[in-house]
Amino acid sequence: MLPTTELPAHRLSSDPSRRFSVAPMMDWTDRHCRFFLRLLSKNALLYTEMVTTGALLHGDTERFLRHDETEHPLALQLGGSNPADLAASARLAQAAGYDEVNLNVGCPSDRVQNNMIGAVLMGHPQLVADCVKAMRDAVSIPVTVKHRIGINGRDSYEQLCEFVGTVRDAGCTSFTVHARIAILEGLSPKENRDIPPLRYDIAAQLKHDFPELEIVLNGGIKTLEQCKEHLNTFDGVMLGREAYHNPYLLADVDRELFGDTAPQITRAGALALMRPYVEAHLNEGGSMHHITRHVLGLGTGFPGARKFRQMLSVDIHKTDDPLGLLDRAGELLEGR
Question: Residues at site: Interacts with tRNA (predicted)?
Answer without folding.
Answer: 104, 190, 193, 306, 309
